[in-house]
Write a sequence for this structure.
């Protein structure tokens, strides 16, 4: 497995956020993590990235136990994230934001990676000299995804990619996520739009109050009568 979480329990202060969760992402697999607000989805991604340290359990990346390893080590091992609300440097240009995604790379494939991003997002080439903070929400999401891809990741973490986007842009966004996945990049995606996420995913997990209450193949979860009840925490 490319990524395994084994019995992860996390706290914020005295508040328990995740309780004994286990999940896996295989090489080139697209896995979605569903759940309502405050279910623990974003904390799960932060634990994978190393921003949150678990009190119990292990994070294993491509056979290496990285539970105690810092964020830069995990990024160097091939993890990248498209964070919630995009978190761009608004006073920097589109090109400069993309360059930041490659800062830990040796630079040998920079031109090819940039060309790939521009192929996926032609608008970013058109806007390359524009300040990122002046872009539309949909364009900013493209920059955030492009920045992550500039690190040439093996595992792409995505935190609520549809948040704040118009319906037409949500569909476009998911088409691009599917294309990235089909290029061989594994994706772990946190999302509240269950139908859209499962429509492009291989497998899915459902979180409720910090515990995984449902898991399975995406095609089966789409047909599951238990999904709505689990998703709503009923």
């Amino acid at each position: 497995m490319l990524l395994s979480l084994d019995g992860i329990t996390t706290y914020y202060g005295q508040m328990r956020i995740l309780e004994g969760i286990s999940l896996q992402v295989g090489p080139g697999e697209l896995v979605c993590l569903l759940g309502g607000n405050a279910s623990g989805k974003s904390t799960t991604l932060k634990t994978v990235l190393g921003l949150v340290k678990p009190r119990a359990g292990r994070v294993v990346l491509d056979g290496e136990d990285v539970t105690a390893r810092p964020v830069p080590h995990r990024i160097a091992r091939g993890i990248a994230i498209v964070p919630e609300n995009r978190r761009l440097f608004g006073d920097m240009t589109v090109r400069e934001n993309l360059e930041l995604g490659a800062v830990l790379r040796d630079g040998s494939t920079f031109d090819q990676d940039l060309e790939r991003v521009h192929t996926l997002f032609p608008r970013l080439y058109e806007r390359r000299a524009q300040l990122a903070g002046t872009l539309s929400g949909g364009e900013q999401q493209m920059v955030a995804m492009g920045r992550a891809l500039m690190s040439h990741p093996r595992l792409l973490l995505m935190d609520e990619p549809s948040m704040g986007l118009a319906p037409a842009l949500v569909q476009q966004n998911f088409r691009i996520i599917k294309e990235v996945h089909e290029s061989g990049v594994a994706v772990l995606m946190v999302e509240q739009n269950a139908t859209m996420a499962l429509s492009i995913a291989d497998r899915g997990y459902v979180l409720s109050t910090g515990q995984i209450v449902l898991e399975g193949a995406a095609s089966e979860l789409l047909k599951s009568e238990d999904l709505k009840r689990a998703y709503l925490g009923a």
